[in-house]
Structures are given as C-alpha cells and as structure tokens.
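Quick one: ABC transporter permease subunit from Duganella guangzhouensis, structure tokens please.
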Amino acid sequence: MNPNLSNRWGNRVIFGATVLAAIAWVAPLLWILALSFKPNELLAQRTDILLAPPYTLKNYSDILGTSLVFRWIANSCVVAFGQTVLVLLLSSLAGYGFARTEFPGKTWLYRLVLAGLAVPQTAVVIPLHRMFADWGLHNSYPGLILPGLAAPFGVFLMTQYFRAIPRDLEEAALLDNASRWTVFTRVILPLSLPAQATLGIVTFLSAWNDYLWPLISATQSDHYTLTLGLASTQTNFAQSEGLGFLMAQAVFAAVPVLVLYAFFQQYIVAAVAGAKVRQA
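--- reply ---
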C-alpha cells in the first residue's frame, strides 16, 4: 500500500475520532443550555423537545430577580480572585525556594508538601470549622479564602516548572549584581507565565465552584457565594418542577468561568506544550 495513502487514511480516522469525541463532550452542554430556555411547565411533562418552541427567558429573569444574586456574584469574585492571587504568590515563592535554594530539611519538607495531595478536603472540615469558629472568621472573606491557600499542587507545579528553567539565565543575572529577589521577579517569574496561568485557572475554578466550605462557613445569606446562593433558591422539587430554572442556574454560574478560560487558553496550551517538550 502507498505510504502516503496509508497516512491519509490514518489522519482521517484520527480526525473523525476527534470530531466524535468533541460532539460527545459538547452535547451535554448544549442540552443544558437548551433546557434553560424552556418553560418549567413544559419540562415537567417532557424534555425531548429542545429546538422546538416555545422559548422563554423567565428562568434567567427569576435568577436576576433574586435580591441578593449580585451580592453573591461579588462574593464569589472576591473569594475566587483573592484565593487565586494569594495561591499564585505563595506557590511561586515556595516553588522557587524548593527549586533553587538549599536549606536544612528541604527534602523532607517537600515530601510533606506532596503528602498534602493525598489529604481530601472532607478530612479536615471539622478541624477547620472549629479553628475558624474560635478565630471568629466565619461569615467573612478571610474565612472563605484562607482554607484554599493550602495548595500543595500549586507548590509542586511551580517547583517542577522552575527546575526546568536553565540555571544559566539566573546565574547571568546574579553576575550582574542582581539580587535574588530581582532575579525572581524580573527573570524567573516572566518565564513561568504559562505555569502560573494554568495554576490560576485551576485555583479559580476550584474556588468559584466550591460548595462544601462556603456551606459550612457562610451561614448568613449576604455572605453566600454564587454556588451556595443559587442552591439556596432551589425547592425540594427543583429537578422535577423547576428543571429549566435549574439549568439556567448552571449556565449563569458557568459563564464567568468560560470567559476566563477563553482569555487564558493560550497560556494553558503553551504550558501543556512546554511540558510535552520537556518530557521529550
């Protein structure tokens, strides 16, 4: 068989498999979006008519009509952005320390950080609740932000990325009488933008979608995050009697995340591509 013909058919098979995988991934999202524009009364009878009328914006108007919804959005933005910025700062500093400096107990401390990857959030909920209650931090922004700053994955990611940066660049800057802080901020950090963007996206998504800790820490409605606030508006029969409203909530909460991902996707692709090159 002609090698060129074989390669052509192989490329077509790969392309077809990619298209099928993309359809399988997008179909549930389109289903959720379509249901969000359907009247709840119709969805209580059947859910197989997605493209046919009638359509309605009532589900979204009901969300925006909730008196505290914009306060919940503001709370989620403060918590998600605050947690993301602090995790990037702490993870970058810790990662640089593990990757470029030597100090007693470095290996054991790094292993201890990696051990944190195996600890689930639910295992520390009770100690966190008691500690934050003693400190009086429940129903506050610090109470919602601080637990997320323990980010062993972020330290691991930044450590590995900093180790892959050639030491020659750092040594050249040190020979020019640059301080360690100058080298870190002017040389190392700009080269780590893809890794920081990836870590920022992961941290933001985790903070934005977090439900368990806000459910425990925020007991007053004006301190709810968006996920907790939207859940509080659901009735006991939301899935059967308010399916359209439920889907509209999912779309409403996902839009900021989609916008953020669209803005930073080039950095995420660069980080993945860089990881593949280093592995090769």
